[in-house]
Amino acid sequence: MRTIGLAGLLGVLAMALGVTPAAAQATKTLEVIVFPGGFNWPIWAAQDKGFFAKNGVEVKVVPTPNSQFQLKGLIEGKFDIAMTAIDNVIAYSEGQGATKTEVEPDIFAFMGGDNGFLRLVATPDVKDTADLKGRKISVDALTTGYAFVLRKLLENAGLKHDDVEFVSAGGVVQRFQALLKKEHAATLLISPFEVGAEAQGFKRLANADEALGRYQGLVGATRRSWAKQNEKELIGYIRGYTAALDWLFDPANKTEAIAILRKHAPNLTEEQAARSYDVLLHPTKGFTRGAVLDVDGVKTVLQLRSQYGEPRKQLTDPAKYFDLTYYNKAKAN
Fold it and tell me: ω into residue 266 within 30 of 0, thus cis?
């Protein structure tokens, strides 16, 4: 009688359990550093629904207190992947980062994510954006992330840089909490944080996408050296993430999707979670379907960084900061 080896036995067991051979193999854990918030919904869905595991990876989510910690950790190899603003990728690549790193930055964006979901939100006493003159406004880092979006929104309202006091107050969670305590007059929040603020009477003054047009916000980023050495895992991450996006956008999954959101963001009320669904999964203004990177949106980021970044540089080539090789392989089959 013919015997089967260990690999064959595992394959038989996998099929008996209804698991594909790829999923039956040991998964590799990837450390992904993120800003805390509901915009991590695709990661949570991919974890809970098994989309990462199906593609041979396990994701350990690490929350970051601010962009300096996140980018320094990514660049120096402490984390495998960062879900971060592409402005951060560009800034550190161009020597305009908010903190020094021990090694030369060699990072790039491998997929898109969203348009930033950026909302300028103020304390209830502020009537409009122009009313922020002479007030404190909080940002994460003064020279990276979404700080330049904030400056543009203020400029559009007739406010100069010196008309307000910018305060570095950490990531979106810290800024949200400081805003609720009215430590600052306004800040730039990322959806769905504005939902919670508005529920308490705080005022949304502007939506960045309406003021700036096309804008690339969140991206998946990593080091070029890591990507070359871990191509299979990176492709698995992209496939798991995009599968989760497809699942989230399916209206048939709405109830379960909201349950996943509330499981990972328990402070959201049922009503706030429902509003978050409408915002983050809006058919045209929500998460970017397929995590496609918006090249025109990257050009907008470069325009803002050319205008406000220090040391001053004229940045015109968006392709310098992304490589879609791994994304294209992930979507090919």
Answer: no
The residue ranges of DSSP E strands in 153-202, in sequence order, are: 165-168, 186-190
Q: Is 118-212 in the same CATH topology as 23-116+216-332?
A: yes
The whole-number average pLDDT for the span 10-31 is 54
Please report the pLDDT score of residue 211 as a whole number.
86
145: closest CA among 246, 233, 215, 206? Answer: 215
User: How far is the C-alpha of 145 from the C-alpha of 124, rounded, in Å?
Assistant: 26
Domain range annotation of the chain: 23-116+216-332, 118-212
Joined tokens for residue 129 = 């954006």
The per-type count for the chain, helices as H runs and strands as E runs, is: 16, 10
The answer, yes or no, to whether residue 6 has pLDDT greater than 80, is no
Give pLDDT, residue 143.
86
Domain spanning 23-116+216-332, CATH class: alpha beta
Q: What is the CATH number of domain 118-212?
A: 3.40.190.10
Give residue-wise pLDDT tens across range 248-289: 999 999 999 999 999 999 999 999 999 999 999 999 999 999
Q: Which residues contact 184 (CB under 8 A, 6 or more apart)?
A: 135, 136, 137, 138, 167, 169, 175, 178
Residue 329 burial class via C-beta count within 10 angstroms: exposed 0-12, middle 13-18, buried 19 and up: middle
**Residue 24 confidence (pLDDT) above 50:** no
